[in-house]
Each structure stands twice: as structure tokens, then as C-alpha cells.
Amino acid sequence: MSFSSDVKNELAKQIASPRHCRLSELSALILGCGAVGRSEDGIYTVFLQADAEAQGRKFFTILKKAFNIAASVLDKVPPMHSGGKVYVPVLQGKEEVSSILKSIHIVDNDDNIRTVDDGVSHRIVRQSCCKRAFLRDTFLCIGSVSDPSKSYHLEFVCTSQRFADDLKKMIESFDIEARIVMRKKYYVVYIKESTSIVDLLNVMEAPVSLMNMENERIVKEMRNSINRRVNCETANITKTVNAASRQTADILYLREHYGFENLPKGLEDMARVRLQYPDATLLELGKYLDPPVGKSGVNHRLRKLSELAEKLRG
Question: CB of 48 within 8 A of CB of 59?
Fold first, then answer.
């Protein structure tokens, strides 16, 4: 199971306690993966996507808790087809259903039906807790998040620019930066910063997924840190080996074309020690000298030897 599925499974089980937050959740579920129709005689029918099983179960649970209505898929009402998707009827009625839809601001007082093209009713997300609930169930319908072991990316795929703009503002009300990009015919609200994704998981109240992502992020950062350290040490070793190789070549050239006996005592000793210990570090070379010399002193003498060899080469 993917990380995105784990997040959705956790969110599907998370139901708000306050009634006003439950109304926000119902509104998000209908706007995110549902539709509402109204017949000429004023009968409303609420539809949900046929493949939205978790969302459907949550819709029925909240409906029961908020309105004490036991709803289910209506077998005698034909499904609706829209945008290449199949929607099954889950609630139908006149006054009672109209009252429910008005309470979640899907239907207004003039019986106009709100869709994603109309954006989010600000009345349904007045409070911070209601925004949390709305974002939670909207993610359940149209959201996804990448596996944090591979990359950091969370998004909501919206069919309406106005709905995308409202989601972006809602996310940013929690001091989380979000952006919108067009992808084919969709408006995608996305977050790419790992800390921002963690913050949004916290806002949507998914503590288990949040901890799993944090653990994965820590492991990933430790792995990257170790790799950087290994690469740095490898680079330093390579640099040291290359430097020692050049120094040895210069000293051999001096021995052949100049003679150690013509070198000052300090440089002669340094040349002989470097040839004797070709793999030693500067610090180790200094200890082999008599009297011992510090790292900077060793480096100075080796540089003098190299400069002399370069001068002799012309």
C-alpha cells in the first residue's frame, strides 16, 4: 500500500466532534467527489463517485452522526455519468434533504446548487477547526502525496480554478505555502517542502502519517549526511594521494637532476622521509623528522622542493 493510501485511510477514520465541523466535512465530500441534482418537482438527489468507497462510508457515518439519518446507496435510482465517471445515488428527498444541503451550503435559499465552479462557501469554513475538517475530506477526495522516501510532493487536483484558489487560501491561513499549476485541464494545488507537508498533515489531523513521514525524513537526511561525509572524505583522500604522488615525482626528479647532497639539510631530510613514507600524511611526516616538525613546516618544505623541481624543469 502506498504512503498516499495510508494517509487517506487515516483521514477516512478521522471524524470531527463539533457538529459545525461535520457539516464542513459533508460539504467537502460532496464538492470533492460528489454531485447534486434537483428534479422539476423539487426532489434532490445526492450522488457520490462509485469508486469512492472510503469517502462513501465516511459520508454515511457523518450523516448519521450529524442528522441521525441512515443513508445507503439507492438501488432503485439510476446512477449518473459525468466527466467519464460514474456517480451512484446515496441520498434523495425533498424538504429534509433540501434542509441538509442548505445547512452545508451546497444549496442556497434560492435553491441554487453549489459546485466546485462556485468555489467554497466561506460560511462553511468560518472557523479554523472547520477549515481543518474541510481540507481533510477534500484531500480524501482529490488529494495525493508522494512516498517521502523518494520525494516530497503533496497535491490537490481540482477541476475548477476558483475551488483551487479557495483551497490555496485555506492552506495559507495555517502559514503553509502552497502553489497552483495548470496540468492539462486541471488546476493543481501543490506543496513541495517536506516541512510544509508535515505541517499540513498536522492540520488535517493525521498524526500517524505525520510521524511516519518524519521518521522517513530523518532516515533520509541521515543517509544524505553520511553520503556527503563519505564523499568529502573520499575527495580529501584523493587530494592527499594526488599531492603525495606529485611530491614524490618532484623529489625523484631532484634526486636525479640535482642531487640530494645539494639540498639544504632541512629539505634533504624532508625529501628522504617523503620517499620512505609515500602514503603518510603531513602530520605523520613531521613526526618522522628529527627534530619533529609541525604540519605547516612540512607543507612549507615540500612546497620548496616542488618549486625547485619546477624551476629545474625550466
Answer: yes
Query: What's the angle, vertex CA 50, arms to CA 136 and CA 47, rounded to 5?
Result: 75
Side-by-side strand order, sheet with 179-183? 143-145, 154-158, 186-191, 179-183
Q: What is the pTM of this model?
A: 0.72
Closest CA to 183 of 144, 151, 213: 144
Strand stretches in 33-105, DSSP E: 34-38, 44-49, 80-82, 85-93
179 conformational bin, left if phi > 0, alpha if psi -120 to 50, beta if neither: beta
Q: What gap in Å lies between CA 230 and CA 116, rounded to an integer?
A: 51
Q: How far apart, in whole angstroms, are the C-alpha atoms of residue 124 and residue 32?
A: 14
Amino acid occupying residue 237: I
Torsional class of 93: left (φ above 0), alpha (ψ -120 to 50), beta (otherwise): left
Amino acid type, 86: V
* pLDDT per position as a tens digit, 25-75: 999 999 999 999 999 999 999 999 988 889 999 999 999 999 998 877 787
